[in-house]
TrEMBL record:
Reaction(s) this enzyme catalyzes, per UniProt: 2'-deoxyadenosine + H2O + H(+) = 2'-deoxyinosine + NH4(+); adenosine + H2O + H(+) = inosine + NH4(+)
Native organism taxonomy: Eukaryota, Metazoa, Chordata, Craniata, Vertebrata
Similarity comment: family membership: Belongs to the metallo-dependent hydrolases superfamily. Adenosine and AMP deaminases family.
Topological relation to the membrane, as annotated: Peripheral membrane protein
Zinc as UniProt keyword: yes
Localization of this protein: Cell junction; Cell membrane; Cytoplasmic vesicle lumen; Lysosome
Annotated keywords: Cell junction, Cell membrane, Cytoplasm, Cytoplasmic vesicle, Hydrolase, Lysosome, Membrane, Metal-binding, Nucleotide metabolism, Zinc
Stated name of the protein: Adenosine deaminase
Database matches in PROSITE patterns: A_DEAMINASE
Keyword Membrane: yes
InterPro entries: A/AMP_deam_AS (IPR006650), A_deaminase (IPR028893), A_deaminase_dom (IPR001365), Ado/ade_deaminase (IPR006330), Metal_Hydrolase (IPR032466)
Cofactor requirement: Zn(2+)
Gene name per UniProt: ada
Length: 362
């Protein structure tokens, strides 16, 4: 995918709200850690590993989710590796011109203790989901010091693991003043919440405890999943949401409510969420309607992309202008899950760098 080359599509400070930490690991890190831990990978070189992990053609969400099986066992259950991926994440985002990012991950998928079932066929160890959050926090904090980009975490519940979800909301509560800003629900959207009440209970607790909420919905699944996210799980933002357009009543209502949509253009094609012809992309409608949305990479390792490739795609195929890039980043800052004071500071930073003296215009 990665277009890159030449001048970035939007060479100004950016905000990214939808990116999976475990979908943004450098291939070199995977190969290095595997060597150090004596883990045999299915291939030997970095190039072969890249070829195995990257999605080259549009496929399905299930095929895409299968890509994590190739490397998660290398990072999970290793303190040094978990901290390292967090630190390197900040470095990458700083290079991309991101001044604030919300990175998401499932603490359970990186743990090797206190998680049932143990993921990735690991041997039991001593890293709990709570330890994972602490390690990621350490990596982000050290990264912020070194690279000046601020990163906060969103903790993911996984659709197929409803018995983990109460743990996830408790971790969000425990770390709310220390790096964690929200809860999410990720994974296979065909598993709805009626059949998996664990998620509903966790999101009810999130509402009760004022933990911010975003939900993957309408990425490959129908508008009804978006409706469930908003009405049952009380989502404040929607991850992807392309298929919301199939229910015009819902779409109009969400437009009116100024719902934020976390859009991931490159991802949307490769997961089979949207038609591969970018000129027919739902994002064009969201833009025309001046909706509240952000642009995001989602899983840059697997999509072989950078934030700039997402910006390039919308510039090339959807006529995005510098004005629209500014507008959507301001909307992203307004819709981020930081405490109000920090949000205001972030907005100030954007207004200043965008030369918006009177702070209005959109
Ligand atoms: O685009 C996505 N849709 C649904 N689930 C996803 C997507 N990207 C990553 N995930 C899953 C796989 C990861 O292991 C998990 C937590 O980041 O979230």
């Amino acid at each position: 995918m990665a277009e890159e080359k030449g001048k970035p599509a939007f060479d100004k400070p950016k905000i990214e709200l939808h990116v999976h930490l475990d979908g943004a690991i450098q291939i070199k890190t995977i190969v290095d850690v595997a060597k150090r831990r004596g883990i045999t990978l299915p291939v030997i070189s970095e190039d072969e590993m890249r070829d195995l992990v990257i999605m080259h053609e549009p496929a399905t969400l299930t095929e895409f989710l299968g890509k994590f099986d190739h490397y998660m066992h290398v990072i999970a259950g290793d303190r040094e590796a978990i901290k390292r991926i967090a630190y390197e994440f900040v470095e990458t985002k700083a290079k991309e011109g991101v001044i604030y990012a919300e990175a998401r991950y499932s603490p359970h998928l990186l743990a090797n203790k206190g998680v049932d079932p143990l993921p990735w066929d690991q041997k039991p160890g001593d890293i709990t989901p709570d330890d994972v959050v602490d390690l990621v926090n350490q990596g982000f904090k050290e990264g912020e010091k070194a690279f000046k980009t601020k990163v906060r975490s969103i903790l993911c519940c996984m659709r197929h693991m409803p018995n983990w979800s109460m743990d996830v909301v408790e971790l969000c509560k425990k770390y709310r003043k220390d790096g964690v800003v929200a809860i999410d629900l990720a994974g296979d959207e065909s598993l709805n919440c009626e059949s998996y009440p664990g998620h509903k209970r966790a999101f009810e607790e999130a509402v009760r405890s004022e933990v911010h909420r975003t939900v993957h919905a309408g990425e490959v699944g129908p508008a009804s999943v978006v409706k469930e996210a908003v009405e049952v799980l009380k989502a404040e933002r929607i991850g992807h949401g392309y298929h919301t357009l199939e229910d015009q009543t819902l779409y109009k209502r969400l437009l009116q409510q100024n719902m934020h949509f976390e859009m991931c253009p490159v991802s949307s094609i490769l997961t089979g969420g949207c038609d591969p012809d970018f000129t027919k992309h739902p994002l064009i409608t969201f833009k025309k309607d001046k909706a509240n949305y952000s642009l995001n990479t989602d899983d840059p390792t697997i999509f072989n992309s950078t934030l700039n490739s997402d910006y390039q795609v919308v510039q090339k195929y959807m006529d995005f202008t510098e004005e629209e890039f500014k507008r959507l980043n301001i909307n992203a800052a307004k819709s981020c899950f930081l405490p109000e004071k920090e949000k205001d500071q972030l907005l100030e930073q954007l207004y200043e760098s965008y030369g918006m003296v009177n702070r209005t215009g959109f």
